[in-house]
Structure formats: structure tokens, C-alpha cells
């Protein structure tokens, strides 16, 4: 069943666990993620990253995502990740997405508030949820010494109040993609943000974190955990060997991608405590 971000995250108020948000690229990815959620009986979020909107046939993939969400036997939210323009947010809303992220993290604080607030007003008027971002979740390297990289708890409080976002992505030491070195997360900062902010909190750059890190993040207040790279790494690692061995190549490849994604999503969801919820 298709639901918005608020509805899908509301389950974390009843039991402490992390809802998985898995970005994908094709129907096989989304089927694999939903198979995992149906097997574990948990709510789930399927997403597409803004940087792929122009590379994929967005309106086509949106139809597929929404069809799969409606057909699922568990609550599924369909989310646009890291949108930087109102144009793509409007495309997603028009296509039937139930959640959009406006990533204004590269803007000045006041400008980020202003733009995010405008988007919240538009999206909420049609029942679509909004995620905002404060601080920098980069790619590859985290600059631990630069205070500007981290989300400041006092700013998070002001941002959440003024924008009325449903969820806030925070920067506590994670990065997107493959980590260079061992990640070192600032749990004290996370717990301070949690104390000051009422909306749901989001962890970006989940791939590559340890089980312990995930569990601590959820314990300290994260409600939504984003994963993409680990799905692609699992496909990259397992598909070439499979292709060498199989004869029924073309149909089998698509089934195999779905299965690899399903197993990787199950592994993550179990760590997040995301099972037996529905
Ligand atoms: P990873 O690709 O590092 O898992 O990050 C996913 C993410 O945060 C998408 O917004």
C-alpha cells in the first residue's frame, strides 16, 4: 500500500527501529526491496536519487515505483532523494510520489530555511511529506575537523520549527558512497539534536557502517536509514560470476538482480530492527 513519509515513519513511535530507505535504478531493485519488506513484514521506503532523474526515464520509473508500492502488502513510501530544484520536486509530486527531499544543505542557513519552507507548504497541500537537510553529508571523505560539516543542534531546532519539515537529514560523520578510512560518528551530537528536534531524523550514507554504528544511531534517535551503495556493490560482486555460470542468460539476470537486492536489503533491515512490525 502506498503511504507518505510521515505514515511510514510513524511506526518508529510505537517501537524503536530504523525504517530503511533504499534507492534503486530499475524495477528489479524496487521489487527486491519490496520482497525483503514483505518477507520481514516491515514498512519501507523506495527512492530514486535526483542525480539519476535525467539519466533514467523518470516518469516511466516513477510509474513502476508507484505501481509496486500500491501492490505491496506492507506500507511503502515512494521518495525523491536529494532534489535541488523545485522543478524536479514538482515532477515527482505530479508523478504521484508521496515524499520528496529538498537538499538545501549547500545554501546559506536562512536561504535553506526559506526554500525548504516554500516546498513544505506546496507538498503538504497535496499530502506529500518533505525531508530537509542541514550540514554536509559529502561523498567519500568526511572533514572531521571542519565544524561546518556537522549539523549544529541549535540550528537544527530552529530549522525544524521554521520549516515544518517531516524529517531532517543530519550530518554526524557519515558520507555517501564508499568510505575512505573508518567512519567515526558523533553520537553526542546526534543525541543533542534528538533532544531539541521533534521531527523524524534521517541518516544518510548508510553503506559501509558497522552493525554497531547502525544500532547506536537508531538508539540515539535516527528513524530513517538511507542505503544505496551497498546494493550496487552486492550486485557488482555477485552478478559477473552468475553470468559465467548460467545458460538462460537474459531473463535470469533480471531475476538475479532482484534476488541479490532482496538479500542485501534483508541483511540491513534485520540490523535496523525492522521486522515483525506489520
Ligand atoms: P550510500 O550510497 O552511501 O548508502 O548513501 C545512501 C544515501 O544516503 C542516499 O541519500
Automatic annotation (TrEMBL):
Transmembrane segments: none
PANTHER family listed in its UniProt record: D-TAGATOSE-1,6-BISPHOSPHATE ALDOLASE, D-TAGATOSE-1,6-BISPHOSPHATE ALDOLASE SUBUNIT GATY-RELATED
InterPro entries: Aldolase_TIM (IPR013785), Class_II_FBP_aldolase (IPR050246), FBA_II (IPR000771)
One Pfam short name: F_bP_aldolase
Cofactor(s) the protein requires to work: Zn(2+)
SUPFAM superfamilies, alphabetized: Aldolase
Protein name listed in UniProt: Ketose-bisphosphate aldolase
Amino acid at each position: 500500500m502506498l503511504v507518505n513519509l510521515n505514515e511510514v515513519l510513524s511506526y518508529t513511535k510505537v517501537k524503536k527501529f530504523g525504517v530503511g530507505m533504499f534507492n534503486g535504478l530499475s524495477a528489479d531493485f524496487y521489487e527486491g526491496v519490496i520482497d525483503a519488506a514483505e518477507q520481514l513484514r516491515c514498512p519501507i521506503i523506495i527512492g530514486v536519487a535526483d542525480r539519476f532523474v535525467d539519466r533514467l526515464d523518470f516518469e516511466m520509473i516513477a510509474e513502476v515505483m508507484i505501481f509496486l508500492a500500491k501492490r505491496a502488502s506492507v506500507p511503502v513510501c515512494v521518495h525523491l532523494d536529494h532534489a535541488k530544484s523545485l522543478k524536479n520536486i514538482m515532477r515527482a509530486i505530479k508523478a504521484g510520489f508521496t515524499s520528496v527531499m529538498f537538499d538545501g544543505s549547500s545554501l546559506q542557513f536562512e536561504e535553506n530555511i526559506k526554500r525548504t519552507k516554500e516546498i513544505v507548504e506546496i507538498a503538504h497541500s497535496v499530502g506529500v511529506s518533505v525531508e530537509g537537510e542541514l550540514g554536509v553529508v559529502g561523498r567519500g571523505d568526511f572533514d572531521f575537523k571542519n565544524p561546518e560539516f556537522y549539523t549544529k543542534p541549535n540550528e537544527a531546532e530552529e530549522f525544524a520549527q521554521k520549516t515544518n519539515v517531516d524529517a531532517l537529514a543530519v550530518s554526524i560523520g557519515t558520507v555517501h558512497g564508499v568510505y575512505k578510512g573508518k567512519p567515526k560518528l558523533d553520537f553526542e551530537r546526534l543525541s543533542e539534536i534528538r533532544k531539541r528536534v521533534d521531527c523524524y531524523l534521517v541518516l544518510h550514507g548508510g553503506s559501509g557502517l558497522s552493525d554497531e554504528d547502525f544500532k547506536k544511531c537508531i538508539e540515539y534517535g535516527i528513524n530513517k536509514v538511507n542505503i544505496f551503495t551497498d546494493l550496487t556493490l552486492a550486485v557488482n560482486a555477485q552478478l559477473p560470476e552468475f553470468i559465467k555460470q548460467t545458460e538462460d542468460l537474459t531473463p535470469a539476470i533480471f531475476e538475479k538482480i532482484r534476488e541479490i537486492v532482496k538479500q542485501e536489503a534483508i541483511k540491513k533491515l534485520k540490523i535496523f530492527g525492522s521486522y515483525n512490525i506489520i
